[in-house]
Design the sequence.
């Protein structure tokens, strides 16, 4: 427990001081990306990790919030209105998603979410009067909360960090709550949960809504970070990348999606500068994770650490026992 | 007023009639045994009583109220609990967490996304009490994955009892148990107070006959014999379709 608190404090200090030790604005921007993608992955993790409902259409939901904010800003609305309506649009879309896709689970759920995601991509691409098609929508400014401009990479990073920390707290509280426990129960034994008196569908629906809220928040941060949104942000690859973040980091863990988001964003934004075929590298990393740590990087590392620690303890016990054994033989 | 009443219950899967005009009247506090050869429709009958399957026709009444169309998730709230033939638990969690989930299922707290479940002392306390009742209090914090089959069977019963049911449906509670474990579970079931009505499906006749006050014999989805233990065992039809000669 003490070690965990110290690790958390160190992580917090590292995050708060990022602008001071990161070598340049580009890397601060990369860290901002990691944070809002981590929020996105945390949202997907609520469903895929804790609820056992793998969604392949989450980028579509992120896109709806991002497009809503961009469209409203472009139409001349203020930032607070654009942000609030974008979040509401994300939640309403998630409710529609949930009502349609929660009719089934497993492969059926994956296929329905995939189809819904593709519909949103199609709309983003073809509904030109609203989305400006392939050209996308530009956002000309970032908000100024309490008079602080978020135009600089450092200011935007701190704003993203605050939102990220709030999201982490929300997810932590949810996971430890009775509703969180019920969601995990519906993932493991839905039939049993039903027989115990739980409304399995409703539990999953509320989990979808929390996932939708986090996804919508990530969507707003995404559009403000890029100051641009186009159909590329809502395509199947984007949904698959989010799923990759969750699975590679460790589905059903708090830290896993954050580590997964860091991995994907670093390979995409940093390593791609050095390796042309970074997609292949990302694929190879994923294959290695699946082979050696099928449960994901975070739980896998914890498992290997425990194993190494146990073996170290055993070898130390053997070393300690060896002289006394030799003495006894003499 | 009966604890459980089934009236002309029918269920078919395509052309296969798995329940044919089943009538059953279980008195409050009664220990009822349902027997029958494999494929007789015993578990299907249980699934209709608990609402996992909807009967094609007929009526199910629990404590005098018609529950035929009540969703299965509502039935535990009305006083019905069940155990499964194939143990259905949460192996990633501790034993006490499994029982806590059973308690939460009937509590409005289950919708709460803000409070810490581990800090809900009254839930944990009641879960520990239920586990003590089935003799598992000393291993309450053990992960379920590190328990024996017999212990898991008792966890299932603890989960059902934790919900303070009026009617408890037990689907083959002795299946897969060793002789000692069977004895323990038998003792445990015999100790359940009379305010709980119990209906049990069981093939293991040694322990089941000791438990039963009345027996219903199902064959191809039909009740062919019903009566006291002595009456059913003595009936030639029981010997013919189930006990053998």
Sequence:
């Amino acid at each position: 427990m003490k070690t965990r608190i110290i690790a958390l404090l160190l992580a917090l200090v590292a995050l708060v001081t990022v602008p001071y030790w990161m070598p340049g604005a580009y890397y601060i921007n990369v860290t901002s990306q990691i944070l809002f993608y981590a929020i996105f992955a945390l949202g997907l993790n609520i469903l895929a990790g804790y609820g056992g409902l793998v969604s392949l259409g989450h980028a579509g939901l992120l896109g709806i919030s991002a497009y809503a904010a961009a469209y409203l800003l472009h139409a001349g609305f203020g930032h607070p209105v654009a942000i609030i309506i974008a979040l509401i649009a994300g939640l309403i879309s998630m409710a529609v998603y949930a009502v349609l896709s929660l009719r089934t689970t497993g492969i059926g759920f994956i296929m329905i979410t995939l189809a819904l995601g593709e519909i949103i991509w199609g709309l983003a691409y073809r509904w030109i009067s609203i989305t400006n098609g392939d050209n996308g929508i530009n956002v000309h400014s970032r908000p100024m909360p309490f008079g602080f401009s978020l135009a600089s990479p450092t200011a935007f990073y701190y704003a993203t960090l605050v939102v990220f920390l709030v999201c982490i707290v929300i997810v932590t509280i949810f996971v430890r709550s009775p509703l969180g426990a019920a969601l995990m129960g519906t993932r493991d034994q839905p039939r049993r949960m039903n027989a115990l008196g739980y409304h399995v569908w409703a539990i999953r629906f509320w989990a979808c809504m929390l996932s939708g809220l986090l996804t919508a928040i990530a969507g707003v941060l995404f559009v403000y970070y890029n100051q641009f949104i186009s159909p590329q942000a809502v395509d199947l690859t984007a949904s698959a990348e989010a799923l990759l973040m969750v699975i590679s980091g460790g589905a059903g863990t708090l830290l896993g999606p954050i580590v997964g988001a860091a991995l994907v964003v670093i390979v995409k934004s940093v390593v791609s500068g050095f390796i042309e075929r970074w997609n292949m590298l990302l694929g190879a990393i994923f294959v290695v994770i699946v082979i050696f740590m099928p449960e994901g990087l975070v739980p896998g590392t914890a498992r290997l650490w425990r194993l190494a620690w146990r073996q170290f303890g055993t070898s130390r016990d053997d070393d300690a026992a060896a002289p006394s054994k030799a003495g006894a033989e003499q | 007023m009966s604890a459980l009443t089934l009236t002309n219950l029918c269920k078919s899967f395509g052309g296969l009639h798995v329940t044919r005009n089943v009538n059953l009247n279980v008195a409050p506090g009664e220990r009822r045994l349902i027997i029958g050869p494999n494929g007789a429709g015993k578990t299907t009958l249980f699934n209709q009583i608990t609402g996992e399957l909807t009967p094609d026709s007929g009526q199910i009444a629990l404590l005098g109220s018609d529950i035929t169309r009540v969703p299965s998730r509502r039935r535990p709230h009305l006083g019905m609990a069940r155990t499964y033939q194939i143990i259905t638990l949460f192996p990633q969690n501790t034993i006490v967490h499994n029982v806590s989930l059973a308690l939460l299922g009937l509590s409005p707290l289950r919708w709460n996304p803000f409070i810490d479940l581990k800090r809900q002392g009254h839930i944990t306390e009641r879960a520990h009490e239920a586990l003590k009742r089935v003799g598992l209090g000393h291993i309450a914090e053990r992960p379920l994955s590190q328990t024996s089959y017999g212990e898991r069977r008792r966890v299932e019963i603890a989960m059902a009892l934790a919900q303070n049911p009026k009617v408890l449906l037990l689907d083959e509670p002795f299946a897969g148990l060793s002789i000692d474990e069977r004895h323990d579970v038998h003792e445990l079931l015999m100790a359940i107070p009379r305010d709980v009505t119990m209906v049990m499906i069981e093939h293991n006749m040694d322990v089941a006959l000791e438990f039963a006050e009345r027996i219903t014999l199902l064959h191809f989805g039909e009740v062919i014999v019903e009566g006291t233990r002595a009456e059913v065992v003595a009936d030639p039809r029981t010997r013919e379709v189930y006990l053998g000669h």
